[in-house]
C-alpha cells in the first residue's frame, strides 16, 4: 500500500478526501501524520494525541462489493482489523465497544472514524481515520484512555504498528462481500464489550437505564434487552454505554 508521510496536518481524513477529489483515487492509500492539529472523532469530537507518540493515520480503500445499505460491514471489517493487529502484539483482554472503539480491559486505546465516498447512490470508497494510542503515557482528563506502551510496559515502534494494521485491514477488506457478511458480523458480536452483561446506558434525553447487549442489526444498530425481556434497537445518537 502506498504511504504518504506528513509532519503536521489538520486532519488526515480531510487530506485524503481532498486528494481523492483531485486525483480520484482507485487504489489503497494511507496518510500517516506525525501530528494532527484537528483530528476528528465520532460525532464531531476531537481526538487528543501528543505529537509523535501515537498512530494517527487515514486510509483510502476502494469499495466494489458493498451496497450502501450494508455500509456498517465496513466498520465491522475495520474494527476487526485493529483487533487482529493488536492481538498479534499480545495486547490482552481486547474488545470492541460499539460501534468501533477498541478497548484493552476497560481502557480505550483506539478510535475509528469512517467517511463514505458515494457517487450516484453507490459506495465507491471509504476513508478510514484511525487514532491508536501507542506510546503516550499521560492522558489529561481522560481516565478511560490507555496506550500500548502502558499495557506492555515498554515503548513500541509506531511504523511497525502501522504495517501490522494495514496488513490486517487489507485482509479483512478482502472478505468484504455478501458471502462473508454473516461470518464477519458473528465475529464482531462475539467481541462486543459488555455483551450479555447487565450494563447502564444513557439515552438521548439524558435518562439512564439498565439493559443487556444482545447483538447488532445488519445496519449496525445496537439491540439491547430491557425489562420484561423486551428487545429495543438503538442508533448511535440514541444511546451511550456507561463503563
From TrEMBL:
Residue spans crossing the bilayer: none
GO cellular component: cytoplasm
Family matches, as Pfam families: BPL_LplA_LipB
Keyword Hydrolase carried by entry: no
Keywords: Ligase
Gene3D superfamilies, sorted: Bira Bifunctional Protein, Domain 2
The keyword Ligase is assigned to this record: yes
Molecular functions per Gene Ontology: biotin--[biotin carboxyl-carrier protein] ligase activity
Residues covered by the BPL/LPL catalytic domain: 1-177
Listed name of the protein: BirA family transcriptional regulator, biotin operon repressor / biotin-[acetyl-CoA-carboxylase] ligase
